[in-house]
Amino acid sequence: MFSPGTKRLNLSSRRGSQAAPGSPATPAADNRVPNRPATGTPAPWAPRLSVLARASAAKEDDKSGKVDPTKPVFVGEFPHVIRDEQAILHQKHSLGDTCISGGLDHGTALSWIICGDKVFIWSYLLPSASKNFIALTIPSNLSEVEGAGRSISEGSSWLLCFVKWDFTHKSTRRVAQQSKSVGVVLCNKRTRAVIYWPDIYSDIKSTPVSSIASEEELNAIASPADENISTKRQRQGSRSRSSSAGPHDFNSLIVSPILNSQEECAALACCSKGELWQFHCSRHAIHRKRVYKCAQGSLSQGNDAVQSTGGKGYPRSLVWRFHHTSLEESSRQFFLLTDHEIQCFLLKFSSDLELTKLWSDEIIGDDGELGIKKGLAGQKHIWPLDVQVDDTGKVITILVAILCKDRVSGSSYTQYSLLTMQYKSGLNISSDVGETIQGRILENKAPIQVIIPKARFEKDENFLFSMRLRVGGRPSGSTIILSGDGTATVSYYYRNSTRLYQFDLPYDAGKVLDASVLPSADDSEDGAWVVLTEKAGIWAIPEKAVILGGVEPPERSLSRKGSSNGASTQEERRNLAFAREIAPRRASSEAWDSGDRQRAIMTGIARRTAQDEESEALLSHLFHDFLLSGQVDDSLGKLKNAGAFEREGEANVFARTSKSIVDTLAKHWTTTRGAEILSMAVVSTQLKDKQQKHQKFLQFLALSKGHEELCTKQRSSLQNILEHGEKLAGMIQLRELQNTISQNRSTAVDSSYSGPEYETASALWDLIQLVGERARRNTVLLMDRDNAEVFYSKVSDLEEVFYCLEMQLDYLVGVEQPLGVQVSRAFELSDACVTIIRTAMDYRKEYHLWYPPPEGLAPWYCQLIVRNGLWSLASFMLQQLNDASFDTLSAKPKIFTQLEALTEVLLEAYTGAINAKVERGEQEKGLLEEYWSRRDALLNSLYQQTKDLLRTGQQDFEGNKQDEIHKDLLTRLLGVAKQHECYSTLWNICCDLNDSMLLKTLMQESMGPKGGFSYYVFEQLYARRQFSKLLRLGEEFPEEMTIFLKQHRDLLWLHEGFLHQFPLASETLHELALSQDESSGLEADEEAESGYRDLTLADRKRFLNLAKIAALAGSDDDTETKMKRLEADLRILKLQEELLEHLDEESKQNIEKRLLRPEDLITLCLDSNKPGLTLRAFEIFAWTSSSFRRRHRALLEECWKSAADEDDWGELYRASMADGWSDEETMRILRSTVLFQASSRCYGPEAETFEEGFDEVLPHRQEGLASRDLECSVEAILMQHKFFPDAGKLMLTAIELGSLQGMSEGEDGAVPME
């Protein structure tokens, strides 16, 4: 692994001339090397065991169709021209003397290889690289640098970086649209020559810009020691010369575009001499200068002559802090790795590219908590080898090698570790910081991770410096280490231990040149590791291969000649055996519906039991026998005994078999002809073969009674099986649609926008490419297949069409294209979506007897991913329909038709999802609100466009008259609006047509919850205050009107009167007259609508009088009681009017439009301190209910106290004693007191009250209280008066006299009664 290459016998000399049977062949050119074996597949961990395991596993795979999950996956071959160039190099040079450079760039998804003077560039995401590559030629004037004595064509001497000019594109489009504007900066490590191609995709081929190091530069960096090294190298062979690095050789290069410039970029390179060089590249020239020089672990600016005393071979590595740039950034930060610290710099994109050092942090020092502790026992030397940064720019990973000495044996060994550091908590250094920051910046994110505790001691330091680190691949948190001998090792911390997975190649396949990460198909984390080899093409390492094929770190290093630790081979055997029992567990269906739509990753590893294996094998055998003989025998009993019906959902063996049928990837589909696959009849034939086989599978289920068993026990599994049939039918129809589109485009008869601006490729073809590309990236086993081939094979993932439609809609419709092109492309996408879903619906209708009971089961096209995809396209078409210019006015009818069809399937998807949620008892409020919002937006807009089309005199598509257009358009729209209860659209149509008959018909047909459409009509009429129309509708919809008017009682009594429900009308009027804010029980907004807040006292009296009339009209047993209550309330209203006359203007304005409660009126009387108002308080008490008097007895007592205080009883007592009143005089004078009048009103023979009298609540005398269970009386209240000791007899005489005698209206001043 980390050991330099050691010559060994090739496979054919070790194992014979014949390759291992069944071993998959690596695509390669014809053998040009003697005795080269026919295969060169990557070996897993131990070469000897891996070849045997791979050979045996290959035999099994050929029989079972399964793939070894621990194997790497072949992704793509080199372009054929690279094979030709490699053959030429082999002819020119002796074996082992040729070495090439190559690499993978994650940001652009481009791979590159240099052979001789050619630079080949292609996308490693494309399976057919031979048709899509760029070949650049290194200028001939740079083939030999005079005085340097080195050939610039030595392949291993190059550093290459890509410059992505279209970095402003959003991340959501990076997958759909590969970079079409990319520059290349090429730098020779040894000669320091720099070559710049501004845009490799430009149609105008221009000569690259180049710059070579001047003699002064080379002489300035050369020292006597360097000359000795150079002389010594000249004595060595060419192999040694090509592998050793000089002190002034560049070892790292980074490039960044300069914002707001014309294809200008800034490149930075560092060398082992301690220097940092800057290159300003433009279309016309490259300006180079040394910006820093490292000395004694620190950096000095400019060209100052500083003797370098830093560590040999440092600085080692440069890396940008953030991988992506944006238009807002005017500077970028980057890290520099030295022999003991990490330094951070800021490059400002000014005219002179200003460089500033921000901070430096020690990673090797005396404090082990802040990095690696040095000076430990047995520690001899520490080498930081490479550094990488994650996508957030906060986590830094450093590959470290430590030379140690065993104190027991005295032998030396190397320990390889990963140091992970992060910015200190709460510290955020933005990109616009321009000054040096002091203090500690980094802290350990996790304890140092030891990859190999005791590896072989490497005498050649250049081998250590050849190691490179990559981060970001799957499994999450894994890293990959590339060594100089051509191996790649994935390190993954799994279950509290480090696991290693080695990607090794036989020598005949060359070295591993570079590794990168498969870009994500969406905005989630990146994909699997991708490895570029020297001769065997590009390979991917699946996530599961790392988890299952990884082993514990060995005691000694594992190089190409194998492991010295035999335990690793035993562990690999166990891993391989375990892998055969493992099945990937797909992300659950709940994840698809959560709104968090992430790619289908391996969420865990579920062990498949022996019973699962047995039942699946049995089902496959029985189904195969059924295909041959048509007989099922006792299949049901055998499957039950095998436990085939015990798993639910997608894990069920029947569902798995069904999925394997529809997802079969036929070998004869494999092609590199790209779009030509769509014209192959084999595609349609294969899809129909799948459909026939799936039908046979359904027949097998029916005849074997397995269908009944699934229908009763595993409903979701049976639904999955039938949905596979739906998707397969949809895929077949989609294939036919693609054929039709291709034919129409070739004849140019179906497009109204055919012209030079019209794209050659259709939108549907681009969508197929996106879905296939996404499937390939999520399943690396498919990376060597064409996108269209993968799309038409992965039938069960048909919903991915709608995911890509949502995420990549701008790219699919071509927002940068003319409006006509956008509309035409949207038509194709709409046709595709509608075709898929309607075909699925038709399949469900045709085979409805096969489906299980639907309660709680939502069809696949009702999932969130499908709804969002449909809505994204519908909203785009809605925008075009509303914003289309006059030039595209002729397209509006077709847009209308397309949007109408799209609306139907979208709303059907929503209703299916809502019904399933309701049946499962889940909360559906949020989904309902989303459904209502999108439904109203779509249907209201469609109706508005219908009116616009009719208003502008547009003709229908078949040339019919306008009234026929009108009827046809409205009929279709009415049907959809009525089905989905879009009442606003139905109302608008009826109003615009002024068709009352249509309105009443719709009201009768649309009887949904809360009265349905009729309730909505009532609301609209009430809001428009069209009360007469509203009440007339009540004649035909009495029950619905009654329900509606319960919230609007100001009209309810009219409707009840029309229905001759006079008692109810009387009650309604009574309630309306007494309604008030505090006690009405209605919401404030409802009261405002009903007009309650605008009622005056006169209005209330009118309502009470109307209530009396209604009560008399509907005479019944309670009429007399109702009349008394109404009369009492009328008296109280009149008392409030009289009370207002005694108040000041301010108080009158506050209460004149309010209905005061009786207790408030009484309190107002008592607080007014005006003569006569106290008696009004007793009058109010008299016309309230007996329950009110009991409830407010304390207030009644206050009234008696106030009545006693109205007269000066002390003066009356003194006058009676001084004048010696007679009995007649005494009675005459007492009759004028308030106590007498109050007693007469409450207890006198002429006293009138509602319900029982005052004597039942508060008797006027103390006698008999105990017998009536009362505690107080008027006499007891008067006894508390201050004048009662003297005038008590007069007081008691007054109340007694009042209870016995009445008062006429003329002389006692009593309130007249009406």
Automatic annotation (TrEMBL):
Protein's cellular compartments: Nucleus envelope
Ranges of residues in domain Nucleoporin Nup133/Nup155-like C-terminal: 1012-1153
GO cellular component annotations of the record: nuclear pore outer ring
As one GO molecular function, the record gives: structural constituent of nuclear pore
User: Any idea where the Nucleoporin Nup133/Nup155-like N-terminal domain is?
Assistant: 73-539
Q: What keywords would UniProt list here?
A: Coiled coil, mRNA transport, Nucleus, Protein transport, Translocation, Transport
Polar residues biased stretches = 560-569
Coiled-coil residues: 1116-1143
Identify the InterPro entries for this entry.
Answer: Nucleoporin_Nup133/Nup155_C, Nucleoporin_Nup133/Nup155_N, Nup133-like, WD40/YVTN_repeat-like_dom_sf
- A GO biological process this protein is involved in? transcription-dependent tethering of RNA polymerase II gene DNA at nuclear periphery
Kindly report the protein's main subcellular placement as a broad class: nucleus
Keyword Metal-binding part of the UniProt annotation? no
Q: Where is this region: Disordered?
A: 1-48, 223-248, 552-572
What's the family? Belongs to the nucleoporin Nup133 family.
| Entry protein name | Nuclear pore complex protein NUP133
